[in-house]
Each structure stands twice: as C-alpha cells, then as structure tokens.
Amino acid sequence: MKSVIKSITTFTALTAILGVMSFPPVLAADEKSVMEKGKSLAFDRKKGNCLACHVIKDGVSPGNIGPPLIYMSARYKSKEALHAQIADATVANPNSLMPPFGKHGILSDAEIGKIVEFIYSL
User: Fold this and answer.
1) Which position has the higher pLDDT, 25 or 32?
2) Which CATH architecture has domain 27-120?
3) pLDDT for 52-106, tens place per residue?
4) CA Rg, the chain, in Å?
5) Using an 8 Å Cβ cutoff, are 27 and 103 in contact?
6) Rounded distance, CA 21 to CA 15, Å?
7) How wide is the angle at C-alpha 80 spanned by C-alphas 29 and 35, nearest 5°?
8) CA–CA separation, 122 vs 117, rounded Å?
9) Who contacts 35 (Cβ-Cβ below 8 Å, separation ≥6)?
10) What's the per-residue H, E or C state across 18-57?
11) Cα distance between residue 67 and residue 77, in whole Å
C-alpha cells in the first residue's frame, strides 16, 4: 500500500512540475515576438534605421559609421543604459553623431523598448 501511495505522490509531483514547465515557452514566444518587432524597427529604413550606421547580424547593406552591434550586454550594463543611449546619445556624448531618436520623436518610448530588447540580445 505504501508503495502505491508513494508512486501516486511521485506521479502527482512530476505532473505538477511538468505542468509548470509548460508555461515558459509561452513567455518565450511573447519575448520572441517583442524581439522580432524590435528587429523589424531596427532594420526599417524609415524608423530605427540602425543599419545606416551599424553592422548588425542578418542586416543587409549596413553602414560603418557606428560600431558593430555585437556583445551588447557586455557593452551596456543594463537595458536601461542602452535605452538611454538610443533615446538620446548626446546626453552621454554631446558630440555624438547618433540621432536622438526619443528626444526628436523619431521613435516612441515603446518602439525604443522593443529595439532595446532586440539589440541587447546581440
């Protein structure tokens, strides 16, 4: 009898664990969707236009005025720091050639957030 109860308890526990493990892919799909939107905005020649100045993985006809966008999580300690850079690079460097996308209304705060999710993953 104890063996049957132990088996049922083990089965129930494993089922609960596997059930909880099924939720992260849903979140990952949402994250992927945000990153895809961010990539689309970054590559859009009428919006982010990051490719005009930067080499980005999978980008076509990139520029070379700015640094390649690689190892971004090593270059920026947080997504907030990267967000601030994209929103207005002239705060950190008044001589920056990078357009202040947020300050000039080129991109909304939400659009910059999506681009940050994509760029920070590079």
Assistant:
1) 32
2) Orthogonal Bundle (1.10)
3) 999 999 999 999 999 999 999 999 999 999 999 999 999 999 999 999 999 999 9
4) 21
5) no
6) 10
7) 20
8) 9
9) 114, 117, 118, 121
10) HHHHCCHHHHHHHHHHHHHHHHHHHHCCCCCCHHHCCCCC
11) 17
Distance of CA 88 to CAs 24, 28, 81, 99, Å? Answer: 34, 29, 11, 7
What Å distances lie between residue 120 and 4, 56, 65, CA to CA? Answer: 51, 12, 19
Q: Which residues of 43-78 are buried (b: 16+ CB within 10 A; e: fewer)?
A: beeebbbbbebbebeebeebeeebeebeeeeeebee
| Cβ atoms < 10 Å from Cβ of 122 | 16
> Would you say 35 and 117 are in contact if contact means Cβ atoms under 8 Å apart?
yes
- Residue 71: both structure tokens together: 């190892």
Find the length of the chain.
122
In this structure, which amino acid lies at residue 51? L
In the numeric block, the tokens 């980005």 are attached to 56
